[in-house]
Amino acid sequence: MFINRKGTSVKITLVRHGRPVASSNPRVTAVGFAKWVRAYNRSFVRPDSLPPQELQDKFLNSYTFSSDLNRSRHSAEICLGKEADLVLGDLREMDIPRLKLPFSMSVNSWLVIARLCWFLGISGNSESYKTGCKRIVSVVDQITTKVSEHEDVAIFGHGISNRLIAKELKRRGWAIKYSSKGFWGQTELTNITNCSS
């Protein structure tokens, strides 16, 4: 177990939200995909998408963050039985570019292409990859400040943003202890140095 200079363990757990009500994979046009993204961003978690009991037990004494998107706030409420201690807009998912392509395809295909374009710097009117990464650096500063106070922090966020948060934490000396994928997936990190590094 990694410890800080006080001799106590410090931990950050990144949790992806549960399955949203709007999670689906229809065949749509570019306009239909834009509508799907808007609906997904407004969506709450499906009633049948519940976190494992061990995940609920894990955060009984954690300081908790949540993205301000409904699916993450709702996931925190389902898992904790209350709203997260702090809701941050900067924890929201990375923007998805709206691509004006003249054909239809499945939502999953649109997501793959849109994400590839975003990583390559094609973002249109959406938040760029560079701007998104700056946002993540800022939010990691806030997270690590809370870890120095509480030593056990949980974040209810999103797939891509959680990965970028984990990447920034690793850059600062944190190590991934455990990781799982999918809805309710989690990445647990510990620190080998001072938790405020």
From TrEMBL:
One Pfam family named in its UniProt record: His_Phos_1
InterPro entries hit by this protein: His_Pase_superF_clade-1, His_PPase_superfam
SUPFAM superfamilies found in the cross-reference section: Phosphoglycerate mutase-like
Name this protein carries in UniProt: Histidine phosphatase family protein
Organism of origin: Vibrio variabilis
